[in-house]
Structure formats: structure tokens, C-alpha cells
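Thread: Modeling a multi-component assembly for a lab meeting

Hi all, long-time lurker, first post. My supervisor asked me to bring a structural picture of a complex we are working on to next week's group meeting, and I have zero experience with this. I have the sequence lines for every component (376 residues in total). Could someone generate the structure of the whole assembly? Inputs are pasted exactly as I received them:
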Amino acid sequence: MNLLSYGLLGMVAREESSGYDLMLKIQPYWQAKHSQIYPLLSRMEEKNLLSSRWIQQSDKPDKKMYGITEHGREILQEWMLSHLSAPVTRDELSLRLFCLWLTEEEGARRMVAERKRHFLERIDYFESLLASRPQHTPTFGSPEFGEFILIQKGLMNARAGLEWCQMVLGMIPREGTTSLQEKLVSSI
Amino acid sequence: MNLLSYGLLGMVAREESSGYDLMLKIQPYWQAKHSQIYPLLSRMEEKNLLSSRWIQQSDKPDKKMYGITEHGREILQEWMLSHLSAPVTRDELSLRLFCLWLTEEEGARRMVAERKRHFLERIDYFESLLASRPQHTPTFGSPEFGEFILIQKGLMNARAGLEWCQMVLGMIPREGTTSLQEKLVSSI
DNA sequence: ACTTGCATGTAACTTGTTACATGATTTA
DNA sequence: TAAATCATGTAACAAGTTACATGCAAGT
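Re: Modeling a multi-component assembly
Sure thing. I ran the full set together rather than chain by chain. Output:
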């Protein structure tokens, strides 16, 4: 059982879901493709952590809804008490910064601007999630609490990223902005 | 050529390094083990992106220093101009928050406290990096600039994470703090 | 005596991505 | 008419982790 499997198990524990549902819901926090999720769900059913039933739909394709079993819930509880592993981030931008000195102002600005767009999109997404739920802050113990602080986690992270982008864009001179003095110095 | 390979190539472009050096330097930004790095460096040498030479050492084991080739530099330049991919984060904590309602206050607090320690450690690390380099802010174009904003990236991210932890710890009631009224309500 | 750091590598395995495969309905 | 959404799955491949393997020097 890997971390993704536990995550899926936990989501099913909250509400019965199809693989497709789970994929969409988990995407913003853990980038997993359907080709990874479907086999995991099958294996978890074999291990008796999940049960499934087919739901016929008229307009859309039929779907397989998964629910958690008693055994699944026990395993889930154990996981929640086990040691928490450190987050893993792999960001191409970090690698590129090691050799940023190889690029011109324009290239560097383009890169950071692209990342800025990414964060703005994420902020939009998380804010729309917040807007589509009860106004009052949920209290600990309710299922809404976990979801609320999860959204806050994404939001605060994206805002920090945006701030960084703006700081950096402020530090890279726009081309054509170089002063006469600097040009003279760099031409030596 | 994967992202990690480009990252290593970029680091070698800055200064000649051994696989061991690269592993240590890249760790805080991209968690790669030596068992992944060594074969990548070998393959990049085969492709004529890197060249290597053995350095004998008396007190420590000998080491293989890699330098970038002309061809390597060209490939690196191309990469810097190509499309930047989105960052990928896999955080067990995010998955756990989906089913936080399964745990008690104590378990939840422990989890967040553990994460808080993680961020405090990272902040310490990045601040020590800042302290061990020239006081004045580097300007765009110098190799120090990229490294400076990379450290800032890690720092701002870790600070945002810490802030989130503190917000959440403030929202989870400490056990024994529950009011009489709440106890009566929850006992129904 | 034991562990940590330095230093390099391979083998077996797990995890994650891309591509293949199907097919109806809705929207542009 | 083309693309996107819904919906499930498999196969081949790439990326990343864990374990195995060696060995010396310095510190605890």
C-alpha cells in the first residue's frame, strides 16, 4: 500500500466514489492519472479494503462506485496514526535557477511570468472552492474542517509562490531599461 | 533526457563537480538519491554532454569530477528556452486531510506539529545559506542571482507552510480545553 | 566498538507517465 | 465536424527508491 492508495481509501471513506470522481478530486493535491488510479482501486478491492458496485447511467457511461469496508476503515485509522513523511516537490524551475546566468533578461522574465500565471490559476481555483461552500469556518471534527484547511494549504502556498514571482520580476531589469552608465560599464 | 539530468547539467555548468557534490547540492530542491544520479551522469558522459576526470585524494576516497562539454552547453541553452513544466508536489499530509475527521484532536495536533518542525528546519537551513554568502543582494546576470532567488523560493515556501501550521494548530482545540457545554452536546 | 561522512557503483523493485483502446453525449 | 466530458481499462516505458556492495578516516 503506497501513499496514493491510502489517499484514495480516505476519500472513499468520506463518500462512495468512482475512480473517475477520485481522479478529479485528488488532482489538485496529488497528480495521478486514471491509468494509475484504476489498477490501485482494483487491488484494494482484492485486499478487501474496498467494495464496488456498478451504477447504470443513461446519458453517460456506466460507472463503478467504490465504498470502504470495515477492514478498510481499520487500515485507514492505522495510517492516520503512523509517522507522517516529508512532502516531495519536484519543480523544474528550481533546477533552472541553478543556471539562470545562462539566459537573457527576456528569457528569465518569460519563465517567471509563466510560473506567475500558474499560481494565479491555482489561486482562482482554490478561491472558487471556498466560494462554493458554507460561509462559516468549520470546526474540528466535521469532515468539512479537513477539506477547509486543505484548501487553505493550497491557497497559502500558491500565494507565497505568486509573491516570489512578483519579487523576482521586480529584480530582473526589463530590456531597454538599462541606463547609459550600465551600458558603458558592461561594454568594457 | 529528463528534468533531473538537465538540472545536473546546469549545476556542472556552474562548476566542475562530483556526483556526490551534486547529490548534496540538489537535495533541498529535488530529492534524488545517489543511485539515481550516478547512472545519469554516466549516460550524459556517453552522450558527450559531460566529461570526467578522476581526482586522487589522500584522506578521502578518490572522486570523479564532471565538467560540461561544448555540446552540453548547447543542449543546456536549448532547455532554458523550452517550455517550463508545472511543479509536482506529493504531500502525504494533503491526502491525510481528506479524512482528518477520523482522528482525535491529539493525533491531528501531532501531525501538524511534525510538519511544523519540518518547516522550521528548512527555514533554518535556508537562512544559514543566506548568512554564508555576500550581504549585498546580487544583480541579474551574476551566477549568484539565480542561487539567491532559489534560496528565497525555498524560504518563502517554508514560511508559508509554517504559517499554515500555526493557523491550523490555533484551530484544533487542545484536549481538556473542551467546555462543559460541548461535552454535554457530544455525549448525546 | 560504533557511527557518520566521503565516495562510487549495481540490481531489484515500486511508482508514475504515455500511449493504446473503446464509445456515447454534449458543446463549440 | 471537431473537440471535450464522462467512463474504464491495459501495456510499455521512464523515473525514483531500497537494498546490496565496498572501504577508509575521523569522531563519539
